[in-house]
Amino acid sequence: MQSINQRFYFVLKILLINTDDAMGGAAIACLRLLAILEQTEGIEVTMLVQEKKRDNPNVKAIAKTWLQKKLAFERFVRERLYFNFQEKNKEIRFAFSPANSGIDISEHPLVQEAEIIHLHWINFGFLSLKSLEKLFALNKPIVWTLHDMWAFTGGCHHSGDCENYEDSCGNCVQYLKNPSPTDLSNKVWQRKNAILDHSIRLRSKHNITIVGCSHWLSNRAKNSSLFKDFLVNTIPNPLDTSVFSPQNKAEARIKLGLPIDKKLILFVAAKVSVIWKGFSYFKEALEILKVQHFQHQEIELVILGECDGETIQKLPFKAHSLGRISDVNQIVSVYSAADVFVTSSIQENLPNTIMEAMACGTPAVGFEVGGIPEMIESYKNGMPSSGFLAKYKSTKSLAEGMKWILFEANHEELSKNARQKVIDNYSEEVVVGKYLEVYRSMTL
Q1: Which of 176, 190, 282, 368 has its CA 20 to 30 A from that of 207?
Q2: CATH code for 5-238+428-441?
Q3: How far is CA 58 from CA 31, 102, 172, in A?
């Protein structure tokens, strides 16, 4: 891994902060960055989480005892109950975080020792707005990697078509039961604005660097009223392409007990019932594919993640439900076994699943939303294709993409292009180099 002795001339202490070390794309991305930095000469790195679930010695937890864990859960419950009285409906319950409940970590020894504080996803009762204010008041260099829009909105994690975050939020019709100019979203925005204004008065605004994992998210941050005057970079999540690499398809299928003579469509989600994963669009696209394509008997599905039996039974093709898998080598086998990876997410940043599938040589189909167009390159103007970009929320287009990859495209070429896309843009070497430049700029 890259040496930075010539850059720093001393050991730089970096503290990564994320709510969790087990579940969700942000936790996975943060752990991957931790692993890279652990191998980087001149860097001393630790990750601080609310409650530790994995056994990495460089991951430290705030909640260690039974009582501390109970208090952490109570903070989460308090925040959810506070929002429940104002939520528009239960479907969006976890898509808005008022951050009214959290813990002060500003006096934690790791925070005090850190020379750079690197924030990631800090919601669900971990850091409140008051916690962030105390953290910013330490006058330490802060890097904040955004995994969704929460940091610059009035509380929502994805704003959809709403652009109120470019002003001062308020009138939040998508998430709040009683939207108004001074509703909860506006109050949260006002609080964030006060924190950032105070931080700028304490120190130069250049001591805070915002990082979007996709150009889409970075551009939204730049257009926001909260971050428009801050430095915003774009650095994708990293992936170990030596681990996520193609396996022999037939061997992978045999290992997983999957048929070797079928066209396999893969869908991955920690929980497929989460509304933002758009599973209903996936199901409808499959129904279109079955009706329109005479070779539909050749198609079967593979579902990786939590999915109930009733949902599986209603799918138009035979489905192999693998449940949740934590073993990385087994996950690589799942990606390698598939002919196409499909995501029907309607709100996304830079999905790890697309990156992982493509690194394993499996072309992807996804909606044209968020950072997905930066990852999946459809064939146009003679440019090589790594998958199929479907029109947003168009099940017909999603079905067209699956059909094209399964039966019409040059699969070998697609597979090669997909992996090369990841190596060129998301490999560990590429990503760590960009972060080292950010760290270097903040220590000059």
Answers
A1: 190
A2: 3.40.50
A3: 10, 23, 40
